[in-house]
Design brief:
With about 425 residues, the chain is an alpha/beta fold. It folds into 4 domains: about 35 residues, no CATH class; about 80 residues, no CATH class; about 130 residues, Rossmann fold, CATH 3.40.50.1860; about 140 residues, 3-Layer(aba) Sandwich (Rossmann fold), CATH 3.40.50. The protein is built from 21 helices and 12 strands. Strands 1, 2, 3 and 4 form a 4-stranded antiparallel β-sheet that branches. The chain is globular, with a radius of gyration of 26 Å.
Length: about 425
């Protein structure tokens, strides 16, 4: 290079007045470039504070590529995404006073595509914990926390009522503390399956299916508590530990080979977080547990279900834990079921909005989004041409059925847990539930 002299700034651009490279004159506008954007003018205090939190460091790794924004489900119904969160923090925004703190469902869609591994599943709970410590918690979430602390479940029902669902099962449901013997399977029923009227349908179906298969099982009954995973992700790790320790204390009194759960959030908690507290179990989601019994199930089927359906992948079974095939194997084995996939499925599945504490934040979310994520998902299911939406998470039957009504699709789309469909196929022809 020769003749490299003089630097000019013109209308936000920078250029060298005289530049000749290998005999080629590229002086003036021929070498014009945008001026560097200086970030050193911004205070790093807010970012430094987040990064100092346990689990918060990766927020500073973002280099604003924006791959996360189009895959974020909340962005589809609002103005959101990790990149936008990072930019707000760079500008000094205090997330503890911002509704954005509570909109993240920890679904892991962003983490799947992030080249820098910015982990919002660690970051958001870390900041939420600080908000909880300062009493900056949405009222509806605070109520769920209080219910979990006092009653052991977010719905606020008495622990004594946890086994009331058994009355409608039409089969014996052994309680391990009463039978006082080892069992093969300890079935962790979960909160919504135990307490919510719509959840009872799945509980009854599961009890009947286990009985028909001859599985040696029992439940904890009134000794069971919430798994606590929603509390942990919503910023209450102390409450999570309290609930986990009570469950572990109860479970460790008994002998069992496998722990089978209905709820993907419980599966995630038992698999990844309970071992550190002394609860190391051979945990399986019920869909994983049932796949080896497929031949026996097929022999028990008596009725063709006759449904064109689609399946919603739960974030905490799919993206978080990599299980996509077990639910589909069960669905494909049910007589009369024709499975079609939605555009967002498996690793790209769309969140229902219930994770990360979102199940207890519908009021706040409604104020800051154009529609609920469950409504968005229902529209996608209807557009797929399916008659029914199959699920395998206790949150989802009531959540999606509400969304079917609120989107004007009542009568166009049924919602059923996979275990309900299996139970339906096992009923004699003419007796299966519609």
């Amino acid at each position: 290079m020769s003749g490299d002299r003089g630097l000019s700034k013109v209308d936000g651009f920078v250029q060298r007045d005289e530049v000749v490279i290998d005999g080629v004159d590229i002086s003036g506008h021929w070498n014009r470039m945008l001026q560097p954007r200086e970030l050193t003018d911004y205070s790093t205090d807010t970012m430094d504070w987040v990064r100092a939190l346990e689990g918060g460091d990766s927020l500073g790794w973002c280099y604003q590529c924006a791959k996360c924004v189009p895959v974020c489900p909340v962005e589809a119904v609002g103005d959101y995404g990790p990149r936008k969160i990072v930019r707000k923090v760079q500008l000094g925004n205090d997330l503890m006073d911002d509704p954005d703190l509570w909109l993240c469902t920890t679904c892991a869609a962003c983490l799947r595509v992030c080249p820098k591994v910015v982990d919002m599943i660690q970051i958001m709970p870390a900041i939420r914990e600080q908000a909880v410590l300062e009493g900056k918690v949405p009222a509806e979430l605070a109520t769920a926390f209080e219910n979990m602390q006092r009653q052991g479940n977010p719905l606020g029902d008495s622990a004594r009522k946890r086994i009331n669902w058994i009355k409608g099962a039409d089969v014996e449901v052994p309680i391990i503390g009463k039978i006082q013997r080892p069992v093969d399977v300890l079935w962790y029923v979960s909160d919504y399956t135990s307490y919510h009227p719509r959840g009872h349908d799945a509980a009854h179906a599961m009890a009947r299916v286990l009985t028909a298969l001859g599985v040696d099982f029992a439940i904890l009954g009134v000794e069971e508590r919430s798994d606590g995973d929603s509390a942990r992700l919503a910023g209450e790790p102390g409450l999570f530990e309290m609930l986990a320790e009570k469950n572990i204390e109860a479970m460790n009194k008994y002998e069992f080979d496998r722990l089978v759960v209905m709820d993907p959030h419980a599966y995630n908690a038992f698999k990844h977080h309970y071992p550190a507290l002394g609860g190391d179990y051979n945990v399986m989601h019920y869909t994983q547990f049932l796949v080896p019994y497929l031949d026996q199930l097929k022999a028990l089927f008596q009725t063709s279900v006759d449904l064109n359906l689609t399946f919603h992948d739960p974030c905490y079974l799919g993206r978080h834990n990599g299980e996509y095939e077990a639910p589909r194997k069960l669905l494909e084995a049910i007589p009369g079921v024709s499975l079609r996939e939605m555009p967002h499925y498996k690793a790209t599945g769309f969140c229902c909005g219930g994770g990360g504490g979102g199940m207890w934040l519908d009021g706040l979310v409604a104020e800051h989004t154009s529609e609920r994520l469950s409504e968005r998902r229902v529209r996608e299911a209807v557009d797929s041409g399916a008659e029914a939406l199959a699920v395998c998470c206790p949150y989802e039957p009531s959540r999606f059925e509400d969304a079917v009504k609120s989107t004007g699709n009542d009568g166009k789309l049924d919602v059923a847990d996979i275990i309900e469909l299996i139970d339906r196929a096992m009923q004699p022809a003419g007796e299966a539930a519609a």
